[in-house]
């Protein structure tokens, strides 16, 4: 039974979900009569969080959790002035393209929109005690999801024709991939999101050292295939309340084998 089914059963008419921009929030009515005793926020709860929103890995669902927590605590979130991403193709300073901080504030509390990971750029806009989180997914499933999701809107995928575009792509991937690997959503995109140099992905020593570096920087990496367990681990790390991590799946899709 999914989370929303449990909430519907527990709350009856007092439960509904309400879309808000690109995230899903639980209706305020849920907080009027919640199905569990309302917890007091932990005095040591973590309020400074960077979440690497990896493409097609349930990251929008996690972003919804982050946004709802920020709204409840009136925190400052770095969001783009336009669109739904801060950086898709390159690492750069995000202050010029993000919504400015309120007067008197010098750092953001939460960053969870799409960026290409770059530790220095993150530390320029966030507090020194920020917790680093990310999410990953079984690579082939992530590829299938990206292929299906981005194919209608991205020229390099849209140009693949035939009754089985996926099979056509696999016959010669280099024929369809864009010249700039940072503009691809199907060629090791998770590695690119984590800030790896896409021109060095065949260099095993580089990849091994970079993964070691990521292991030192990130406090927790969620796994989509173990999503509920990952959310529990996140809650414990951040010392958040149970109601802070209740979620409704967002942007889910069924894979069409022929795509």
From TrEMBL:
Gene Ontology biological process terms in this record: glycolipid biosynthetic process
Stored InterPro entries: Gal-3-0_sulfotransfrase, P-loop_NTPase
Chief site of localization: Golgi
Gene3D superfamilies given in the database record: P-loop containing nucleotide triphosphate hydrolases
UniProt keyword terms in alphabetical order: Glycoprotein, Golgi apparatus, Membrane, Signal-anchor, Transferase, Transmembrane, Transmembrane helix
Membrane topology: Single-pass type II membrane protein
Cellular compartments annotated: Golgi apparatus membrane
Cellular component GO terms, alphabetical: Golgi membrane
One example GO MF annotation: galactosylceramide sulfotransferase activity
Coiled coil regions, renumbered to chain: none
Cited PANTHER family: GALACTOSE-3-O-SULFOTRANSFERASE, PUTATIVE-RELATED
Family indicated by similarity: Belongs to the galactose-3-O-sulfotransferase family.
Protein name, entry field: Uncharacterized protein
């Amino acid at each position: 039974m999914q989370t929303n089914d449990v909430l519907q059963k527990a709350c009856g008419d007092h439960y509904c979900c309400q879309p808000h921009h690109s995230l899903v929030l639980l209706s305020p009515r849920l907080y009027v009569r919640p199905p569990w005793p309302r917890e007091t926020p932990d005095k040591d709860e973590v309020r400074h969080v960077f979440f690497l929103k990896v493409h097609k890995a349930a990251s929008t669902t996690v972003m919804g959790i982050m946004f709802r927590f920020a709204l409840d605590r009136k925190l400052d979130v770095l969001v783009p002035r336009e669109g739904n991403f801060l950086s898709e193709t390159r690492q750069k300073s995000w202050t010029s393209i993000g919504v400015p901080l309120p007067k008197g504030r010098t750092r953001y509390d939460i960053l969870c929109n799409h960026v290409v990971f770059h530790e220095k750029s993150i530390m320029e806009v966030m507090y020194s005690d920020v917790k680093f989180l990310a999410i990953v997914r079984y690579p082939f499933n992530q590829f299938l999801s990206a292929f299906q999701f981005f194919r209608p809107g991205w020229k390099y995928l849209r140009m693949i024709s035939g009754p089985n575009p996926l099979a056509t792509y696999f016959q010669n991937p280099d024929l369809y991939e864009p010249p700039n690997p940072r503009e691809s959503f199907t060629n090791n995109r998770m590695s690119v999101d984590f800030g790896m140099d896409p021109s060095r992905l065949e260099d095993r020593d580089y990849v091994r050292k970079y993964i070691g570096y990521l292991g030192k920087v990130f406090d927790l990496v969620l796994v989509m295939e173990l999503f509920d367990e990952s959310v529990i681990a996140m809650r414990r790390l951040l010392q958040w309340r149970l109601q802070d991590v209740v979620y409704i799946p967002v942007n889910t899709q069924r894979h069409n084998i022929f795509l």
